[in-house]
Amino acid sequence: MVSDTVKLGALAGAIILAMVVQGGAQGRPPMRVHTATEAQELQLVPASRSVQGGKVTVKDSGDAVKIRANGIPTHAVGQFPNRGNPHKITAQRYNFEAEKGQAASLARAYGLAGLFGAGLNGVPFDPGAAEFWKGNPNSGWQYEALGGAVRLGLDENHAHVQPSGAYHYHGLPWGLMKQLGWSARSESPLIGYAADGFPVYALTARVNGKVVEMTSSYRLKQGRRPGGSQPSGRYDGAFVQDYRHVAGSGTLDECNGARVVTADYPQGTYAYFLTEDFPVIPRCLKGDADRSFAKRRPR
User: What is the domain extent for residue 198?
Assistant: First the structure.
């Protein structure tokens, strides 16, 4: 039987390859060269500015969900451009659509070949950063966007802007969560939808009549990285590969999901959760991703 470590190692490799292919398709600039090996505390840009013109419509038919949006958030954002992110927020043309199916037993690497999903405000969840050890996507070492080793100019919504002008979340979207009435004392409201149509919630759920925090089952590896032609230093969260999935160590599976009963799905559903700890935004999917969530060349 293949171990979780082996399966997830293969999944991570597939994810990185998919990111490279999609990155080229989007016409991104050449990879930046980094040699940092230590995680740092995030320096978040204060979310003190407003952006006008946000538009979004969300239609849930029960069998499928459709989101039409321009990607402009209606909550406060950080200053863009900024030192770590030289891009300005501009309107996009998103037409997301996903049919709701059954969760599969195997994780699907498409989660980073395209967008993981989108919030109810139409802003994408796109957790992976196209930043690699020494600028080499084939190195096997991808910088974790929330690890702080590479400055990405994230604001207090853990978001920043792509060269195309697309504002997107790398972590907990606090502005959106507050707008939707999220509270640590209550089960999470619906936050958005994943590319496979399953719902996305944040941090909390009602389990056996009690509100509990839903927790990641990823843990930092023990010891130190290989060094030599690979990064050195201890596994501290600077890289995605510093983590491994330990089944049962948290309440969620390898895709940060679980079957739950919610106000939106009283008969129960598989759902993804945004968590405090890695991966925060899931890095894989349990269903088939709709093509509308694929990353495209900026217009």
Answer: 1-299
pLDDT at 112: 52
First-last CA distance in the chain: 46
- Identify which of 35, 4, 44, 33 has the alpha carbon closest to the alpha carbon of residue 243: 4
Determine contact, residues 195/109, Cβ cutoff 8 Å.
Answer: no
Mode of pairing for the β-strands spanning 204-207 and 159-161? unpaired
Which pair of structure tokens corresponds to residue 37? Answer: 């090996």
Cα-Cα-Cα-Cα dihedral sign, residues 245, 42, 281, 30: negative
Query: CA–CA distance from 32 to each of 36, 121, 167, 191 (Å)?
Result: 12, 31, 20, 33
- Who's near 38: CB < 8 A, 6+ residues apart? 149, 233, 236, 238
Sign, CA dihedral 201-207-210-212, equals negative
Taking only the tens place, the pLDDT of each residue in 42-76 is 999 999 999 999 999 999 999 999 999 999 999 99
pTM metric for this prediction: 0.90
Segment 221-233, tens digit of pLDDT: 999 999 999 999 9
Is it true that the peptide bond before 279 is cis, omega within 30 degrees of 0? yes
Q: CA nearest 197: which of 101, 126, 268, 121?
A: 101
- In total, how many domains does the chain have? 1
List C-alpha distances in Å: 238 to 35, 44, 142, 241. 11, 16, 9, 9
